[in-house]
Specification:
Number of strands: 10
Helix content: 55-70%
Mean pLDDT: 81
Low-confidence stretches: none
Shape: elongated
Number of helices: 14
Radius of gyration: 65 Å
Distance between the termini: 208 Å
Order of helices and strands: HEEHHEEEHEEHHHEEEHHHHHHH
Strand content: 15-25%
């Protein structure tokens, strides 16, 4: 009985022990499962952290790349105006190595003329903290300059010290464009009227000179075709030829009449030119016109003056020709008269000389001979004879070669002509086939007939002095 009662008790104990062991095993498995779950979660979190770190590194690298290679320059200045940070774009703009820019005053890279304005601007931005913009002339390390736009804003750094964040933009191209636009605007307002149209020939813009010349204001013509300037003086073929020339050559110029707003027309010198894009397509037409009314009036005056002058020249030429003919006739008559007078004078001289020699001198010599005993009278007769001979000699000379040759024989004329040409006695004898002695004899006779008895008188010089 007792043994039977002990068996169930033992069985119960075994069952309870087994149950406890089973319970312990279940609890361990549960804990193990929980630990495995925690491990999986930790591994997942670790993977997420690793991915987040990689993403952060990639984001940081991307940010640094964007920061360094941004299309504009970025830099940060301390409260003292020293460069604390700068990206590669700004480094390229300043053309200086980054290590030589960090911790250097930014004012060193500002043109001298803009430094005072930069200091005032820097203080205002750092004091007020508001975002502001300024334009400065920046100097590179190579002592070249460029125009820059600075967009500035104050911010706090990690150590709570203020920084000035600057966006540096090179605006040199914009400044050049603005300058070109100013120059173009100044050139646009010239004394000539300017018209700008689109490719379809609709007016886009005109200058003040155009309005002054035509009476049309900008509002009157903008958006309209240039036909409103055409007078009824040209047919359609004229304008077709004009625009065909513009399209082919790129320009046309010539004189045309332009119609004003009030209907009047005036002559102008008109030039049309094309404006093309990079592809060679026409985008605009530009015309310049000048009022040439005064020029045309001056041309009319000049033409009239020229015609009057031409008429006067013709009339003067006719008068001069008539005067010339009269002068020729008068000169001919005078020459005839002078020749006749010279001939008469020479003949009178010869006759007088011959008369004195043949009549007066013989009588004077007879009287002298008769009065030889009276010395005083004889002396006076000698003086009278001498003076009379000198008078006859000088009076009998002629300045004309032909008249002088009248006194000579034919052979003497030949000798005198050769002497006048500069031939020697020997050459004359050879030319005339006579002896040199005969030539010398003829020379003596010629000198005597021409009243050249003096030793100092040269026959050739005298003959050269005579007019032919």
């Amino acid at each position: 009985m007792n043994e039977n009662n002990q068996k169930p008790r033992r069985s119960r104990q075994l069952t309870e022990t087994s149950f406890e062991q089973s319970a312990d095993q279940t609890s361990s498995d549960k804990i193990l499962q929980e630990l495995q779950l925690h491990q999986i979660e930790l591994e997942m979190q670790n993977e997420e952290l690793r991915q987040a770190h990689s993403a952060l590194e990639a984001s940081r690298a991307h940010y640094l790349e964007l920061y360094d290679f941004a299309p504009v320059g970025y830099l940060s200045l301390t409260a003292q105006g020293v460069i604390a940070e700068i990206n590669l774009s700004a480094v390229k703009q300043l053309k200086t190595e980054r290590k030589r820019l960090i911790n250097r005053p930014f004012a060193l890279f500002i043109a001298d003329k803009d430094k005072d304005r930069w200091y005032r601007f820097f203080r205002q931005v750092m004091q007020r903290g508001e975002k502001r913009t300024c334009e400065l002339l920046i100097r590179r390390s190579s002592d070249t300059f460029f125009h820059a736009q600075l967009d500035c804003r104050r911010s706090e750094s990690e150590n709570h010290s203020p920084l000035l964040r600057i966006t540096l933009i090179d605006i040199s191209q914009r400044k050049q464009t603005e300058e070109e636009q100013r120059i173009a605007a100044a050139a646009f307002e010239t004394q000539e009227g300017i018209i700008v149209t689109d490719a379809q020939k609709f007016i886009l813009r005109v200058n003040h000179s155009f309005s002054r010349l035509t009476g049309f204001s900008s509002k009157d013509v903008i958006g309209k075709e240039t036909d409103l300037l055409r007078p009824d003086l040209y047919d359609e073929d004229f304008y077709k030829t004009l625009w065909a020339t513009v399209a082919e050559n790129g320009y046309w110029q010539g004189e045309v009449w332009i119609k004003r707003k009030n209907g009047e027309v005036f002559p102008s010198w008109l030039t049309w030119r094309t404006v093309v894009d990079n592809g060679g397509y026409i985008t605009h037409y530009v015309a310049s016109l000048t009022d040439i009314t005064a020029q045309k009036q001056a041309e009319i005056v000049l033409l009239e003056s020229r015609q009057r002058l031409a008429n006067q020249v013709v009339s003067t030429i006719e008068e001069l020709e008539k005067t010339r003919e009269e002068t020729v006739a008068v000169n001919t008559a005078l020459n005839v008269m002078l020749k006749q007078r010279e001939s008469d004078k020479t003949e009178a001289q010869l006759l007088l000389s011959q008369e004195v020699e043949t009549t007066v001198l013989p009588i004077l010599r007879k009287l002298k001979k008769m009065c030889e005993k009276q010395s005083q009278i004889s002396h006076l007769m000698t003086i009278l004879e001498s003076n009379l001979l000198n008078l006859v000699k000088s009076y009998g000379r002629s300045a004309n070669l032909a008249v002088a040759y009248q006194k000579l024989t034919p052979v003497e004329k030949q000798v005198a002509s050769l002497v006048r040409q500069g031939l020697s006695t020997k050459m004359i004898s050879t030319a005339l086939n006579i002896s040199p002695g005969t030539v010398s004899s003829h020379r003596k006779h010629i000198r005597k007939k021409l009243c050249l008895d003096g030793k100092n008188a040269n026959l050739r010089s005298y003959l050269d002095s005579l007019t032919e």
